[in-house]
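Trying the structure run again after the queue cleared.
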Amino acid sequence: MKDGSTDFDNYDEADEETQKHLQKEFAEAEKNGWAQGKPGSFLNRLIAHGNKKTEEELRRSGERNSEPSTSSS
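Done. Tokens:
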């Protein structure tokens, strides 16, 4: 992850140094009452990315559920 091309979708690529950094950011966020990490931090961007993906998935799911059924019974 040191090359600057952060792949938020591939959590398995996080090395030990990155994990320690995230733990430190999490502790700081918890201490300061930041629900989504310190604004602008890696943790904050990671959470924002996850939230965006979840919102997109929910939107797509809602669109599929609202489509009229084409099966005839």
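The chain has a mean pLDDT of 83. Worth checking whether this holds up in the mutant runs.
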